[in-house]
Amino acid sequence: MADEQKVLTTRQGHPVSNNQSLRSVGERGPATLENYQFIEKITHFDRERIPERVVHARGTAAHGYFEPYGKIGDEPASKYTRAKVLTKTGVQTPIFLRFSTVIGGKESPETAQDPRGFAIKFYTEDGNWDLVGNNLKVFFIRDAIKFPDMIHAFKPDPVSNRQEPWRFYDFVQHHPEALHMVTWVKSPWGRPATYRNMQGSSVNTYKLVNDKGEAVLCKFSFEPKQGVKNLTSEQAAEIQKNDVGHATRDLYDSIERGEFPEWEMCVQIMSEDEHLNLDFDPLDDTKRWPEDKFPLLPVGRIVLNRNPSNVFAETEQSAFGTGVLVDGIDFSDDKMLQGRTLSYSDTQRYRVGANYLQLPINAAKTTVATNQRDGFMAYNVDNGGENPHVNYEPSTQGGLREAPKPKKDYHQWVEGHLGRYQTTKTAADYQQAGERYRTFEEWEREDLINNITGDLKQCPENIQLRMIWHFWHCDPDYGQRLADGVGIDIEKAKALPPLEGHPAPGQDIDVTLYDTGEPEGDSKTNPTQASVTTGSVK
Length: 538
Hints:
The chain is an alpha+beta fold and about 550 residues long. The chain is built from 14 helices and 15 strands. The protein is about 25% helix and about 15% strand. The protein is globular, with a radius of gyration of 24 Å. InterPro entries: Catalase (IPR018028), Catalase_AS (IPR024708), Catalase_clade1/3 (IPR024711), Catalase_core (IPR011614), Catalase_immune_responsive (IPR010582), Catalase_sf (IPR020835).
């Protein structure tokens, strides 16, 4: 049967021999702009829905402010970052925060078992900063080239127009890194009681850069001061009988009553080396950084105190992008972050328009001066130069000029062979999912088992067996309870061989057997393999 399947190609008809990995400089290196296969795939995906968001369609939002403590933990914030929004005390930065469900359409119920979006636009004195994350601190996949496949599998069947569990688990069974997120999202944590009672997370890894040009890896988290509260399936079903928009109602009403919801912003910090001592890659967004080793350090607080005056003009037309950073906050080589940075802003230009940044909800509250012109729905010219005839740079005729350079810029040393890589640290794909299962309270485990059991009963037997095999390797009790619920002989599931092309559960990829794309010997003697070195010596 497999031999009879059609070969996957690009829209240009080129055969696709690797649909799992971006091209990057080494296993952990940054992705490259010439990722044509990925760019074609993701930009087409960005344009698949008009005008509703492809993902995060159902949402609500509110205005508020961020107030930094001036410290990160017990240290001055300036030790880690030169970002004014995080270091200047006594300044309240305006924010706009949009909450959302991910997979469902615009009118889908807010009781759905689904990740929740947590996207913040900070209108800082140095321009906008967008922090676009979710409530859960991990994700399903770790390489952005898989994002269109994942969403296609989770969205309704293109023929029946129904969300089918077999499609979800058919995708997941081939991606063990998704087991951690599935364990979270199929538990009560996949159904926050309200938006006010859920956490927020950047999910992806960023960098903080200080005045000395020194950088550290970081993840952002938001802890609700109202407390965390989740719903069981039964509780969610009872709410949905009467209200499909209970979370929107709750947020709006609480702000109107003057009960302003508040979160504490925290960061986890790690040095920017490879951390060979860890059993997971810190750039892998399907993994959590253990809080006993990398504690949550308070940075500041966010408060929501004003509802939108018009939902369409603000909530629906608000547009976020992971590439919208301010000086002192930088990108890591997280492959999901790098892919999202292209995809998000590309989607906004398509969904809202080329001039979406001229809309009041998206416009920076500081002076904007560019040489960008025209395009659909342009209604102003953000020209800050003295001579309106000059729309280029550099110029001696009164045009715009570059801003002063930082005292010491951050330079990342990048060296490696250009190829398509998967992470070789795969043991934690099962480990962290099992740890999560064991830390749940019994009522959370029961809800998790009931939810997955209900899904698997609607799947073909081969998918049932493989998923029980996966979960058994995460934790034997996890797999056994699912097998009992579905009516599958656990021994039949355990007898399956490991996934083709994947290491045995609990093991890292054996680099001696794994085709990393690196050439044998010196790259100079192997012209088919590119070698890339960029950056500057520190």
